[in-house]
């Protein structure tokens, strides 16, 4: 039975959440030898490792990273027509699970060396800057220097809600600037939103890459950004290397930041996974085997493939952690 756009929208939201949770126990492993050691005990299914191997923070298997939690807060805000700024502050701010000494937004640099991993979730740079800006009463609460994957990892709910409507990109930008008021972050995230919207509206499409590139090159495109041309060049880098495996993409394109959450590299790595796989479970496993910021890449991969035909894979992943 063919999926409706509503079905695919649900698939995108659930796919992103499940993929984030699947990668969470192996999030942020940057040491190749350690990654190889951890994978050796898990293959061929590295997802949902029962004990966290994350060298920075540890959460129970099945819980979300800070990326997945941001998507959840956005989803809840959209469903209840809530104040997103207030909800982010209440979820990630003082007195929450994220309010740990190492995560203190006012922690001075050069203090006592942190003992890692911490027992609990990680509050990253944009969230700490967001909290400081809210505390200072600033109207623009987003961090103007942070350009990482947070925006892309949390867009599934807003793209799903507004897919096919002219204000979709406007809503994406509005959401992103709450915590990341950075032009490159916004431009890359809106390109990612175009890919996800296309899958939600149309399902699988081998021509999606050309469709999105044509949109970005259209002088009459919705919500144009000054950096769209730069983003187009970044997408062309991925296009030119689609024949390469994920682990070959980094040296082939020179994506020094492909494994960390910094943009554009992290987006390029995730997009490569979307365009070179047609099964959600294998795509997530493949990006996990590359190490680094596995969860941020996995969440976008999960959203795009979840919006296509992978309901069975999502159910399988859910069963892995629930049972």
Automatic annotation (TrEMBL):
Pfam families: ADP_ribosyl_GH (PF03747). Belongs to the ADP-ribosylglycohydrolase family. This is Selenoprotein J. It comes from Nothobranchius furzeri (Turquoise killifish). The gene is LOC107382674.
């Amino acid at each position: 039975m063919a999926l409706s756009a509503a079905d695919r929208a649900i698939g995108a939201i659930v796919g992103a959440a499940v993929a984030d949770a699947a990668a969470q126990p192996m999030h942020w492993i940057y040491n190749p030898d350690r990654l190889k050691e951890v994978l050796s005990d898990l293959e061929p299914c590295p997802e949902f490792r029962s004990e966290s191997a994350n060298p920075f923070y540890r959460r129970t298997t099945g819980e979300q990273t800070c990326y997945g939690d941001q998507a959840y807060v956005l989803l809840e805000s959209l469903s209840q027509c809530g104040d997103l700024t207030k909800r982010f502050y209440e979820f990630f701010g003082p007195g929450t699970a994220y309010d740990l000494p190492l995560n203190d937004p006012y922690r001075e640099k050069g203090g006592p060396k942190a003992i890692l991993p911490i027992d609990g979730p990680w509050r990253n740079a944009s969230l700490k800057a967001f909290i400081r800006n809210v505390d200072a009463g600033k109207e623009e609460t987003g961090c103007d220097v942070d350009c990482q994957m947070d925006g892309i990892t949390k867009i599934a709910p807003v793209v799903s809600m507004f897919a096919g409507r002219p204000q979709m990109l406007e809503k994406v930008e509005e959401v992103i600037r709450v915590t990341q008021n950075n032009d490159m972050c916004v431009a890359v995230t809106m390109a990612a939103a175009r890919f996800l919207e296309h899958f939600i509206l149309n399902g699988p499409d081998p021509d999606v890459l050309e469709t999105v590139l044509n949109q970005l090159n259209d002088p009459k495109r919705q919500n144009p950004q000054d950096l769209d041309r730069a983003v187009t060049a970044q997408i062309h880098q991925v296009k030119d290397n689609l024949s390469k495996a994920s682990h070959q993409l980094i040296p082939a394109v020179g994506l020094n930041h492909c494994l960390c959450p910094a943009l554009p590299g992290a987006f390029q790595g995730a997009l490569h996974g979307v365009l070179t796989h047609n099964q959600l479970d294998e795509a997530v496993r493949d990006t996990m085997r590359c190490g680094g910021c596995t969860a941020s890449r996995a969440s976008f991969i999960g959203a795009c493939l979840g919006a296509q035909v992978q309901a069975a894979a999502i159910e399988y992943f859910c069963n892995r952690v629930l049972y």
